[in-house]
Write a structure and sequence with these properties.
single chain, alpha/beta, 7-stranded mixed sheet, two-stranded antiparallel sheet, 10 helices, 9 strands, about 40% helix
Length: about 260
């Protein structure tokens, strides 16, 4: 089974342009996240999926420098970008991970993907977003190629095309869906932002990475939580943006 991880990335963020090219310890956020995704034990292939906008030549060039595969597709139709790259790579299942999650925990990727693999072919789509419990910035979705292809054919509305997976969430009577919650019973999805949408988020991520990567660049979510318990003042960096969660804005449009 070919398990293809696709990290969608572009330079044209309206809230924080060029954020994936921001550097911490001489590495871009794109490189930091890609290195962590590649630690997942289930991946058989990995691609950066960017757009055909000339501004995203920077992402293609950086991918080449890092010896990472890069696919370029429609700027606004992310569903088409995922479908075309999955078809090109002959993927049996596709993992969708956004590029604004530089501290994503490979163990959480494996938890979601492992559930999908261990229960194959009983589910079309497994995520940890519906609803979320992990801190924002650990977003993992995996779907079968058949489910992706059906979405690509049937999804018509702009938000379904722009965000790839809303069509699945809107049609749980058609698709077999599972959600992975944090096993400790806690819900930090609205309290801790490990995603990068604003400059304040970058300052928070930078402080964590510089503190923990000295010992191990592949530190996990528990290491982050332990750090924040020791230094709760770090949470002040992006506290003003807590609760601004991608899933909430997208899911509200599906109702």
């Amino acid at each position: 089974m070919i398990i293809l991880a696709v990290m969608q990335a572009r330079c044209g963020s309206t809230r924080f342009p060029l954020k994936v090219l921001k550097e911490i310890s001489n590495r871009t956020l794109l490189e930091i996240e890609a290195r962590r995704i590649l630690k997942s034990k289930y991946l058989t292939d990995f691609v950066i999926a960017t757009t055909t906008n000339p501004n995203d030549d920077l992402i293609e060039n950086l991918s080449a420098e890092l010896s990472l595969k890069c696919f370029r597709g429609d700027e606004n139709d992310l569903l088409d970008r995922h479908y075309q790259v999955a078809k090109l790579m002959h993927a049996d299942a596709v993992i969708k991970i956004p590029s604004d999650c530089p501290l994503i925990d490979p163990e959480i990727i494996d938890k979601v993907v492992g559930f999908y693999m261990n229960n194959h072919p009983n589910y079309d789509y497994v995520s940890n977003l519906h609803p979320p419990t992990h801190p924002d910035g650990n977003d993992v979705e995996i779907m079968s190629f058949q489910a992706l292809e059906r979405m690509w054919i049937e999804a018509k509305s702009p938000h379904q095309r722009e965000h790839t997976t809303p069509y699945i969430l809107e049609n749980s009577n058609i698709f077999r869906i599972a959600n992975i919650e944090w096993e400790n019973g806690l819900d930090y999805s609205k309290e801790i932002r490990l995603t990068v949408d604003y400059p304040e988020d970058f300052d928070f991520i930078k402080a964590i990475y510089e503190e923990l990567s000295i010992q191990n660049e592949y530190f996990n979510l528990n290491d982050i939580l332990e750090l924040l318990n020791r230094k709760p003042e770090l949470k002040e960096f992006n506290k003003i943006h807590n609760g601004k969660f991608w899933y909430n804005s997208i899911y509200s449009q599906t109702k």
